[in-house]
């Protein structure tokens, strides 16, 4: 009975540890402003995503300029050229970071769905066109590109709740692990089994993280921008989560080895006593 109880508590400890780990990653890299910006920075050089986004930026820039119809044929090629060359400008990296920060704020602090606010990028394009034409236009305060509608709001709220739960999950995992060791007939064996269970769970978590891009491809999106954003962001998220999994796997391996060594040492000491 004690062995069965220890096994159940050990399984609960492993499951809670995995849940706490994933929850902490969400808190650090998705819900956190700085983490989201860091995770999304590589998208600024992702060719497929930027190509898809360029059309939206160009339309937003054209709407902001509001030039007379007589000079529209002259200005339109300038907007197109400015959009295509925006990534080569020195102010682009800062504008992209600001785009991510604004998008995070509108998505998580607002009441709508997932939104990409490209106002900083539109401002860079407008400044470029303005220097060519002599037209002075103030950059827009907001240029939202909708990636997912307000009907997805509940999923964002669930994500935030899951991210906030990681301290409680971690405490639960620690408590279950300690109880598992206290209840076990052989604590060294229980420690080794805990390590092995965590190692297997970490391996499954690694595989699951790698499948995020494939899962993103199966979803239905309302626009090319949202589709390419999901594909690019899921790839970065998968790489980040897999990198986080490595310390988890190493820690699990250490627990398993410690348990096995302690069990072997205990057996040696018993043999000498005899």
| Radius of gyration from the alpha-carbon trace, in angstroms | 26 Å
Class derived from helix and strand content: mainly alpha
Average pLDDT for all residues: 84
User: What is the count of DSSP helices, taking H or I runs of 4+ residues?
Assistant: 11
Helix content: over 70%
Distance between the termini: 29 Å
Order of helices and strands: HHHHHEHEHHHHH
Strand element count: 2
What are the main properties of this structure?
mainly alpha
Task: Summarize the helices and strands and which ones pair or pack.
Layout lengths: L1 H30 L1 H8 L6 H19 L6 H13 L7 H18 L5 E3 L1 H15 L10 E3 L6 H12 L1 H18 L3 H24 L1 H6 L6 H50 L1
Antiparallel strand pairs: 1-2
Helix pairs in contact: 1-2, 1-7, 1-8, 1-9, 1-11, 2-5, 3-4, 3-6, 3-11, 4-6, 5-6, 8-9, 9-11
Written description of the protein model:
The chain is mostly helical. It is built from 11 helices and 2 strands. The protein has helices spanning 2-31, 33-40, 47-65, 72-84, 92-109, 119-133, 153-164, 166-183, 187-210, 212-217, 224-273, and strands at residues 115-117, 144-146. The chain is elongated. It starts with a helix and ends with a helix.
Describe the structure in brief.
The protein has 11 helices and 2 strands; from the N terminus they run αααααβαβααααα. It is mainly alpha-helical and 274 residues long.
